[in-house]
Amino acid sequence: MSTPAKKTATNARKKATAPPTYANYIQGAWVPSKNGEVFANHNPADTRDIVGYFPHSTAEDIDAAVAAAAEAYPRWRLVPPPKRAEYIFRVGEILIRDKEAISRDMTREMGKVLKETRGDTQEAIDMAYFVAGEGRRLYGQTTTSELANKFAMTVRDAIGVCGLITPWNFPIAIPSWKILPAILCGNTVVIKPAEDTPLSVYRFVKAFEEAGLPPGVVNLVTGYGETAGAPLVTHPTIRLVSFTGSTQVGRLIATQAADKGKKCSLEMGGKNALIVMDDANLELAVEGAVWGAFGTTGQRCTAASRLIVHKKVIKKFTQMLVERTQALRVGPGLDPANEVGPVINQDQLERVLHYIDIGQTQDKAKLLCGGKRLTEGDLAHGYFIAPTVFGDVAPQAVIAQEEIFGPVTAIIPCQDFEEALAIANGVGYGLSASIYTSDINRAFHAMRDLETGICYVNAPTIGAEVHLPFGGVKGTGNGHREGGLQALEIFSEWKTLYVDFSGRLQKAQITD
Amino acid sequence: MSTPAKKTATNARKKATAPPTYANYIQGAWVPSKNGEVFANHNPADTRDIVGYFPHSTAEDIDAAVAAAAEAYPRWRLVPPPKRAEYIFRVGEILIRDKEAISRDMTREMGKVLKETRGDTQEAIDMAYFVAGEGRRLYGQTTTSELANKFAMTVRDAIGVCGLITPWNFPIAIPSWKILPAILCGNTVVIKPAEDTPLSVYRFVKAFEEAGLPPGVVNLVTGYGETAGAPLVTHPTIRLVSFTGSTQVGRLIATQAADKGKKCSLEMGGKNALIVMDDANLELAVEGAVWGAFGTTGQRCTAASRLIVHKKVIKKFTQMLVERTQALRVGPGLDPANEVGPVINQDQLERVLHYIDIGQTQDKAKLLCGGKRLTEGDLAHGYFIAPTVFGDVAPQAVIAQEEIFGPVTAIIPCQDFEEALAIANGVGYGLSASIYTSDINRAFHAMRDLETGICYVNAPTIGAEVHLPFGGVKGTGNGHREGGLQALEIFSEWKTLYVDFSGRLQKAQITD
Amino acid sequence: MSTPAKKTATNARKKATAPPTYANYIQGAWVPSKNGEVFANHNPADTRDIVGYFPHSTAEDIDAAVAAAAEAYPRWRLVPPPKRAEYIFRVGEILIRDKEAISRDMTREMGKVLKETRGDTQEAIDMAYFVAGEGRRLYGQTTTSELANKFAMTVRDAIGVCGLITPWNFPIAIPSWKILPAILCGNTVVIKPAEDTPLSVYRFVKAFEEAGLPPGVVNLVTGYGETAGAPLVTHPTIRLVSFTGSTQVGRLIATQAADKGKKCSLEMGGKNALIVMDDANLELAVEGAVWGAFGTTGQRCTAASRLIVHKKVIKKFTQMLVERTQALRVGPGLDPANEVGPVINQDQLERVLHYIDIGQTQDKAKLLCGGKRLTEGDLAHGYFIAPTVFGDVAPQAVIAQEEIFGPVTAIIPCQDFEEALAIANGVGYGLSASIYTSDINRAFHAMRDLETGICYVNAPTIGAEVHLPFGGVKGTGNGHREGGLQALEIFSEWKTLYVDFSGRLQKAQITD
Amino acid sequence: MSTPAKKTATNARKKATAPPTYANYIQGAWVPSKNGEVFANHNPADTRDIVGYFPHSTAEDIDAAVAAAAEAYPRWRLVPPPKRAEYIFRVGEILIRDKEAISRDMTREMGKVLKETRGDTQEAIDMAYFVAGEGRRLYGQTTTSELANKFAMTVRDAIGVCGLITPWNFPIAIPSWKILPAILCGNTVVIKPAEDTPLSVYRFVKAFEEAGLPPGVVNLVTGYGETAGAPLVTHPTIRLVSFTGSTQVGRLIATQAADKGKKCSLEMGGKNALIVMDDANLELAVEGAVWGAFGTTGQRCTAASRLIVHKKVIKKFTQMLVERTQALRVGPGLDPANEVGPVINQDQLERVLHYIDIGQTQDKAKLLCGGKRLTEGDLAHGYFIAPTVFGDVAPQAVIAQEEIFGPVTAIIPCQDFEEALAIANGVGYGLSASIYTSDINRAFHAMRDLETGICYVNAPTIGAEVHLPFGGVKGTGNGHREGGLQALEIFSEWKTLYVDFSGRLQKAQITD
């Protein structure tokens, strides 16, 4: 995840008429920020369109939300998990019912095309059904004891109040990855979504409300990182901070959490390689590269921002890729004819253009297509960038090392399989990787030796399913995984239980 | 774990004759510290006895050891885990053979009685056999995919070079908890043991050498926290820091690790409650309290430093406990007649005596027995403290809140079961707890509601078995567990693998 | 489960007007039996009430159903499990919607009170949500290989066409235990429900139809054991037979299945002990005994048909139990005031009365209450038996050894805990057991030493939850368990996969 | 496994001098058969060499052994599993020490070459270390309850006395697969090994004796199937029968076990296909085919007895295979120069020659090499058959459908991948399969669609590792797997435990 750069905000009381004003959700009630301030949420495809006004919250609001969560915690922790799960199943059903409306709102507030926002919503649905399945599982272990008449076992226990900080690129999917396992495990939460996408989380939280979730279990506070996120991270009652976003912000949060003795889970940046071997199905590889590089306008932590291509096929691959890229239709995501939407905001626009400049000037890479903002007609009102492909990029080039988080990808030539792996592993991140090859031996070698948390064979670097762990190594994470049962390791603590029913003092390891 | 306070060290080149001088183990060779300096390791039961001289290592030595581990890593990672396990089984067999000698050395260097050092060695043996069993397990998951002709699975992968920092109270058991799963998972390690107990770890490392472990997989560097531990924590090549020790030092290490983007696992302090209900088997409870409070001279992170006793039985319990405590025979651990050995060093002696003073003066608690240093005869040459029981201690008293890490325990009266739980949970730590009761309903309520990582019923707060997770919540840990399969979550990273064998681009969650 | 004794059937073409005629469900269509014959389904609370007519199917119908299942199998096996699960979630939602109607029908056709038939339907709902959760799990294992460059893993695979034979006492819950995991695992099924309760299964199958399940995946054939069940068991295409019913019939089926090389899963009879210790909460124990013995009119395989009571409390317990039993209101289950309904049919009525006679004459036990058919007023039209308690029953008495499957329980005195266990274990069955005691040591000893598949502490012998394994040892089963993930062991086969990507011949265990 | 055809036996009291006479092992003592009779164990490579005389046991001996096992059971069941495991680790260490001697004895009594008998012994060693690892695992599950204040969990329990019947082709490996998990789970056993290989099991049992296993836990009775095996299967005290051998005998045993209500686990025949695709590494495929077909003289249940080869490469493959086959050196296994040993006995010799005759006459297949007994020089005293390859074999030919269990393989041509799968699946067995292909898509399709319990990619059909499940579908098994954790499903029963600590009657699924 890249740094969630800020949209221009109106830190003023709302004046205009049309766009609705939304509220925080604290203790089961919809309330404005204590200071009464709001910020505007713009449509990145047309900044004239204000989606709504959201509370510009500060530490006071965080305090209230954390207090609500703390109050709800002892009771929620004792609700039998199958009952907790019933709320989540209901949330899943509500999301199915409202999928289209939620997805349209999401496209409007963050830009990616409707097909993808539907996928985003679907991911929250899938996560709801998957996580709710833990209501009747949450397995711990019974095991043996080395001592007679002693019983030994483990159970999972809740942690307490969790602070969740989520980005704008998967506005409902990522919150679902955090909120759902957190509350299934018996925790209560306060979520502070990115200031660019509060509406999607609002709609998500509405589903919890409709499902009848007890007040205080899920609390929503909108606002900015410095003013609302920071006090959440350092709040003494918060036992766990779960963050998805840039590596830079993630490290800072982790350091603060460590200093305060909080548990901390991070999902951060990526610089993901898609390797194309000489025996690859090129058609398939190109299609995967296009989708991997430009899906979500390249604003995925798993985006295929590096294409490592075998010299034998690089010429043909490049030609096919550029052709396909140039044919991509860019425009507002609500128009079903468009394939690529805008980037999220002005800062992000500038950041991407800056990297495109570096690629040409500093890295001396070959700009094959794209490389500029699109401003024809109504596009001028949005943050549109033409999908950009660089060729002949050196593995150590800036655009081959740093996360751009936009519709830009870099073709890096390689001599053979071993070099491909070395290049792929030669970055500071370790989130996702992909290899296109028809050879089973190479595929298994790659799966073993690629230094990433996720690895695809003959599929692009993106496309995780909710029931498998998601996350990365090296600069990408701090050892945790979301998705899959591995998420339970974040949101619960193991408790080891020994019952000695021998009626006498027994000592493990010690012979009297 | 309390702060590993330092022994008086001789930061000078060794002059005397008799005591042997030991070396660091780097890249399969025994080498002195680069600066040639050593420190003396004294017998805490008789400080005239110098156990040996050990390298007073600094950053240079750490660099060499980390380099060795880094060099060994790529090859070791590819050794099939069943083969890795064979080395560990062999280590287990060697420890069985040398158990008595190792245990005597351990008593000599750190003081606890021989019966307990044998238990300590046995724990490393048990851990070896348990962890080696993962050589043919290390299970990941195969699972389903929502897309046809797509295969999805997870595997565990190694992390890289691990830095391990271990305390003096379980000089071989705790290193075994870290080294064994670390290398079984394919990592290589550098261990920096407490300066008070380098000999035990030396002997442990000798077993790896004899087992034929490839050079560089396990490296040992002795020295002090500031000079040898600190550079290990911050070394850029180190991917994971695993620390057992005081909460204060642990937080500092965690903060540094977070700042550098390293994974970090912490096992820290405890203030463990042993609850005695009115329906408890009092005989058993007293025996458990004595063993829980004074085993290892109270220097266990799981020591029963709080005894929360129901008012109906407190009088009788107190009388029985004091009687049993006063009967404990204190003296050098090598004499089989002794039941309680010395504390580890001068700093720790002073720290414990200081808390005993606070208990009397500031906390106004009732000193029921012990409370002073023992200096009769040869005891004067050691760090002996009479086992100490305080009565009528308030839940908020300093000695009922802070970790003392010595032979001191505090009896806290309670009115009923609910109050007992509230007192038990009313501290900043969350490692171990215990309840003595014959009532099954109370036992299950307590197991559910005690806020600790480990909970015992009708057994003292100490006595973990290697195959169950060990660690705590709140101020005790940062979410990880050692022991059991849970240790694998520390020493490996999940890798998610998707193989799409459909021959076409498929998109999870998205319907075209 | 006892032998499903037959209701009087009208093996004639249907003549009357009012009651509806139902059909078999084969290949997604509702079809009559090939011979056109039907049998009547009577209300056991009032045999004048004909619930409906159902196909009196024979081998021809079984052939057609098996053929449909076989045809559907190859495609269904390849439907991604998350998609299979979506059908099952939908079935769960439909059952929630229709819960009341289904439950009323169920009470009408098999007699148990409405509160219990609602529980029966709820169990199918719970099972649907639980099993569907496996759609994104179905975990196999990735593991290590002792050889380099070799990958090893396991997956679960489907088995083929399954033949399911289910009893009348849990007319929808038990079919849900079999159909749902069977189809989730990729199998297709033919179910032959007990002739006493075809309507409940009809309603269940309607839910699959409404959910859009592909034709042929679930097929329903109604009829009798000899004419429809037998040809299902021996059909050459059937790969697995899953049966719940009497031990006698189960053994016969298992023998036939073994002879034909089919997999076979059996859940059979029980003779379950509820132990009451002298330290038990007597109020709770009596309540549990009444519910355990007379719930479902005693027609549960887990019914508490033996009450083993400590001599110190037997007098009081007996008095309280008889009092509570005599107060039970017996009558048609649709009347909410009634607590106990009729037994299922004439054969079962006679069987129970026969055992009551044996208890008095042969066993010389003391009839404390009940012991006769109830025929006052409209009860004369149903199969009502007064809840019956025998006292002073010897452990070896017929009524303490054989499964009665009716509202009859036997109080057996015991001297102490050890004798209680010996009596409890002294029968040929091993399904469920229960102990009432407040002592934690006794509870854990009992949980360890009771020879049953299910064991309760301070709860009656009945009340399983869907996500835990259900089944028994000794005469009760053949090693399988339904419910929980253990059900997957029945309905799938493990497949071990090795991929050698070394490019050379490697030999496990062998050193060249 | 094929039918263990009998060696010529001397059912007479031993007269000669040299060869030793061995005894049964019952209740920790070495005892002759009650009738005092023995049978001779010949060396199949030279029948003049009598390996020893073994008890010709009957029902009386079985009775004594079962009684010993039954007596030992209650105590052994309560030995803490980590302690049970220590015996097994010790057995593993003894086998390592004696590996060479055991392996030489094994070659002498059953013929396969020394390299392979060393592998056989190694497999028992690996199994010992693997299974012993369960001593500190044997995991059951703690889980949630839908009711408040109720605890729910599962544990594994022992079954009782197990009867084990093992074949001669893996004389120590297969007994290790059964005995070790059986006793680790707390059962006691009686083993009746094949009459052709009693010495190997004798040596195995000696290791248990030396390890100090309590008397009665493992009992050995030698003899024939009809006289010693049959009474073991039907003995009323036996709770579980585990059999490896022919499908014919297996079905009979299963039927008897079902009739008596015993649990039964079967590993039976195979007719395993090795598929060679046109994109295969032919060199590797040929090497794999030779090893798969002629390893253990083809007497493996996993032998590659069918080679399904793509038409494009069949000519070259055939030529290479025949060349390699003809070069195999056949002779006594103790001579390290030999690669293929004799078949086990006269019956098996005749059976294999009979199939070779059928292949030529009835199946009209092309005999490419081998096809006859070898009788030159000393070979005349042994049961040697030249490695035999048939070409142009039709999928439905007798030699392509029935298990031969000898050094005979059949090349079957195929048109494409789909046909290869269809042919591979077109037999009544389902044990092992293998595919040689470099294409990852084909490999994954094959792994999914081959109807076997074990599947290899680019490795022959043989070579299982102990920690993965072993066994098959269709005619090969009855749903169980040996090896891996799946073996625990055979040798233990699940017990579900519910503890209600609410103090009131709660009812699952039912709302009052």
Automatic annotation (TrEMBL), chains A, B, C, D:
Top class in the EC scheme: oxidoreductase
EC id: 1.2.1.3
GO molecular function: aldehyde dehydrogenase (NAD+) activity
Active-site residue list: 267
Entry-linked Gene3D superfamilies: Aldehyde Dehydrogenase, Chain A, domain 1, Aldehyde Dehydrogenase, Chain A, domain 2
Keyword Oxidoreductase tagged: yes
Coiled-coil annotated residue ranges, if any: none
Source species, domain of life: Bacteria
Keywords: Oxidoreductase
SUPFAM superfamilies: ALDH-like
Keyword Oxidoreductase: yes
Family per similarity comment: Belongs to the aldehyde dehydrogenase family.
Annotated protein name in UniProt: NAD-dependent aldehyde dehydrogenase
